Each structure stands twice: as C-alpha cells, then as structure tokens.
Amino acid sequence: MLYAPVVSFAPTSSRPPPARPALSVVCAVYNEEEVIPELLDKLALVLSMLEFSSEIVMVDDGSTDRTLARLKSMIGHAPGVRIVELYRNYGQVAALGAGMSVARGDWIVMLDGDLQHDPQDIRRLVAEIANGYDLVATYRDRREETSFRLAVTWVGNRVNRYLTGEQIRDFGSAYRLFSARLLAMMTDGFGYVHYNTPALYINARSRIELPITQFRRRYGASKWNLISLIQYNLDFLIHSKKVTQVVLNIGLLGIFTGAILYISSLLGFAEPARAISAPITIAFTSFLIMMLAVIWREVMQTQRFARGQPPFLIAAVWRDQGDGTPGAETGRFPICEVRPRRPPQNGCECVGF
C-alpha cells in the first residue's frame, strides 16, 4: 500500500465506479479548448454504435487555457468520460502513459485530440478484433501536412524499420487499437504505465495496419518540434535489435581508420594524415557523446521504472458523480508521486492500490 498526499481540488466522488468497460479510448490534449466539445460529441456518437461497453479517458496535459474547464463541462453530456488532470505539462507520450495507467478497458484506443483523426475510424479498428489481432495500427494514406513534416516522416520510418526490424509502414501514426495485455511490458510494480511506441509493436503477437486520412488542423498549432521528434525516435534506438551491431561496426571502423593514419604517418605522409585525422576525430568524439546521452537517458528511465516513478504526476481524476457534476476519484490508482512506504502522517491519506 502506498501513502501519498492527495492532490485534489474538488469534492471526491463516493459513488462506486462503473463496471469494467471492454474498451477505453485514451486521448491526450494540451491547449485544445476549441475542439473539446466537438471531439467528445463525435467520440460519444461512435462509441454508442458499438456493441460493448466503453469509457473515454481524456488527459489534460497541464493546459494553460480553458481546456480542463471545457472537459469538466462535458461530464454528464458525454457518457463514460473520465478526465485525468496532470500537475503540469509533460508531453504527449507521458500524458498517454498517465491515461493508460487509469484506463480500465480490456482494449485501448489511442488517438490525437486535435481532430486530425476521424473518430469514425474506431469502428474499423474494433472490427479487426474478431480477426485475432492484438494490435490494430494505422498508416496515413492521405496526410494534409507540410512538405517538411512529410519528409521527416519518410526518413524516420525508414530508419526505425532498420533499427527495430519491424516492417511497419508508419510508426508515427498515433491512431491505434491494442489489447491492454501489451501494457504489461510497460507497467512498473506500482501500476504506472511508461508508454513507448516501439515496445508496443515489438511485443504484439499479431498486428495489422489500416489506412486512414489525417486531416489538417483546424485550430491551434502542432505541439511537436524537431527536438521532440528526436526524443520520440530515441525510443526506437533503445529498443533496436541492431544498435549493438552498428556501434561495434563503427568502433571497428575507428580502429581501422586510426591504424591506416598511423601507418601513413610512418611512411612519410604525416601532413595528409594530420589533415584527415582532425575531422575524423571530431566525428568519432561527437558520436561517442551522442551515445553517452542515449545511455544516460536509458539509465534514468530504467531507474524511474524500478522505483515506480513515472514521467508524470496525476493531480486528480474526474468523473460523473451521478448528477452530471464532476467529482474526483480516490483510492483506485496512485495519485501524486510515489512516496516511501510509511504510515500516514501530517494529513497524508492512503490513495494507493
């Protein structure tokens, strides 16, 4: 049992949680107040057409506009809505992990919250469950994006295919349906999901990719930039089956190059050897620094996973109290960061599993 301070700013809901749904739709949003009503209305309409129970888990990733207020106002209007309020902004990948940590469905649908994904496609994804797939991914057959982003995606997909050995058409398409069992490999001992995309593809037993259209944004601007794209793709490097081989080959190339330059200097080609050695030394040193950064990132992530410290902090989870008003859930999942195991004191309340 974990003991931690409760971070909640509204009356808690004493109403028992509904029965475990078959499907959880997880969607992370950040400063998307304009799209919230339309998004939730479309999701509720699609889910009402399905033959099994469902819930909508909306994650507010520390928005600075009225996104959280808009989400709370939709409680009671869109059935099955639960809102995960994060303490601050952590980024889309971490926010998705927070949503999956509290989702209760046997199947998870993840999609973007900017209406670039058509909620109607959920019906197509769900239909593939009957065919035995535990991962139904998508690829962007039509994409209304800038030429630069299309070029970055083209390069990234080819590099990631080589690194992981997985023949996926579009690693960057975030519209997916998968069995909640696949989250077991990404869940620490405290129940937090440390979501990453390559682990999802690598651990899937049977998968399929369906074509979708990704529409242009109607509101706001993309939250992704070059740095976030690089950090996202580092996960593929970490999970690569070939990275060890690539690094060893580069190391052997460095040894061979050094030997050639040394022999050249002994044979009287000292000046050309020195001219060549400087840029080669800079290149290899830069590569080593990059690898140290990757290793350090992985060490820190592994340490957080082992300690049960997720890359997010949940402030509260909101749901319908039964009268159409939002109430904060307690006692069903870890709220606030993991604390040392100790008896409650100084007003702390047990909110663990």
Describe the SSE topology.
Layout: E1 3-4, E2 23-29, H1 36-48, E3 54-60, H2 67-74, E4 81-86, H3 92-102, E5 107-110, H4 121-127, E6 135-143, H5 147-164, E7 176-179, H6 197-203, E8 207-214, H7 226-238, H8 243-266, H9 270-307, E9 314-320, E10 326-328, E11 349-350
Helix pairs in contact: 8-9
Helix content: 25-40%
> CATH top level of the largest domain?
Alpha Beta
Instruction: Give the biggest beta sheet.
Output: 9 strands, mixed
**Low-confidence spans:** 1-15, 336-353
Q: Number of domains in the coordinates? A: 2
CATH architecture label name of the largest domain: Alpha-Beta Complex
Q: Strand percentage, roughly?
A: 15-25%
Tell me the number of helical segments per DSSP (H or I, 4 or more residues long): 9
Could you write a compact summary of the structure shown?
The protein is 39% helix and 17% strand. Helix 2 links the parallel strand 3 and strand 4.
Q: Any overview of this molecule?
A:
The protein is an alpha/beta fold and 353 residues long. The chain folds into 2 domains: 278 residues, Spore Coat Polysaccharide Biosynthesis Protein SpsA, Chain A (Alpha-Beta Complex), CATH 3.90.550; 63 residues. The chain is 39% helix and 17% strand. A 9-stranded mixed sheet has the order 8-6-7-5-2-3-4-9-10, with helices on both faces. A two-stranded antiparallel ribbon has the order 1-11. The longest helix has 38 residues. The protein is elongated, with a radius of gyration of 24 Å.
